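Re: the multi-chain job from yesterday

Posting the exact lines I submitted so nobody has to dig through the queue logs.
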Amino acid sequence: MTGASSDLHEHARRLLLGSDLTVADAVALASGQVIGETLLASALRDGWTAAERTGEGGRSR
Amino acid sequence: MSVEWFELGQRLRASTGERCEPRLLHAPMLLGPRPVAVRAEQHHGVVTVAAASSDGRGEAGGLDGLELLAGLGVSLDESEPATLVSDDPATLRNLLALARTVAPGSGADAVAGHIGWWAERADFPGGSAVADVVEGCRARWVTGRAPSAEPEPGLWRDWLGVRDASVAGVLALHGLVTEGEPLPWLDALADDDRYTFGQARKSHSDGWDWRRPDTTSRAAVGLRTRCDAADLYAGALLSDPLWRARGVHTGEVVVGEVCGDPPAGQRVVAVACGRLDARVRAGADVLWWLGAPTDALPAGGGTTGTVRATAVSGGRLVLSLSTPYNRPALGAGQEVTLMPAAPSVQRQRRGQQAYRSLQYSRRSWLTQGRTPTPTRRTVPLDVLLAGAEND
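And the result, structure tokens for all chains:
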């Protein structure tokens, strides 16, 4: 995860405790580069795609 | 619950794309007719007020700060309330401290009374009396930062491209948060704000001192209206497709599939759900429709129903859903989404009117302090937390 703030990296790392996943693994699962079958994987993917599914774009900086 | 992972997915996307990801498709607050941005800081007992509105801007300390606010239309002498727009939770506390230094009945008491009204309305979710823009931003978007970084207004200015860090920039942030179509029922909550502002104006002209603590009956009516506002705002959030997508991971929104092929006359239908962590209970009134949580609701807003029973069968949660006689045709395996039925604004209004009439009736249990016949209801968590706060 290039360019991610250190606080988000730490936040993600804590949420992934006990899952054997790294933050980079979480990005791959969330973005759909890797397909996962677990609840964690589907929740990450749901969050990543939620706005897409409703046709809403993000707000650029 | 998997909502933390859901939000992490949103944050990772925001971080990768370097843009705010929406939590809601709708605006979580109304613009209001007269927004006034205020920052109030207290140093060595002196409160300094910086304020801006479309009428101008300025900065002043002590009672001059109240005069500045009066010039921007913050007064019970005005026919319409001003919206306090702030990016710092300490602002209202400091304004209230300043307002309490004003002598009752003095010239500045109309401004002080307006601030007292803000303080009273601040804990009504979705209201348009007080707008905390940071809370509004957090309701509408997530950033690619950790949640612990998001209470900082500078972060939101950075992510939303607002360069003005002065008090006028608070109005710019407010403009972005309120942009677009608002959540439903915010106008009903704004009507309540206007009604109570009218009451505050009347009390002020009758010589009532706003500093006096609530009577028991007034506090009871206040609790009732706060609960109603929290229920209505929760219902408004669930009307937003993106919030419903999140709701799947909090258990508020339930996705399942129709079991068997229920014939047209069969009122109770079994729905099998993949997740066991649904928060729906037997007896709950729900709104349901055929399709996914993020789908637009069908014309008429979905179908109402009641969950008659819940059971676990074969590792799946099976809901017995009581449906109306004119329900849509259902077939085996069709996707069904259920969520709590929204409260009725009309029913809430009738209940509040009944409470208010009890408040002014000498013989009612409310004014006489008698124990009423108990009726049970869930008190929203926000209201419990607000009640637990010391100030």
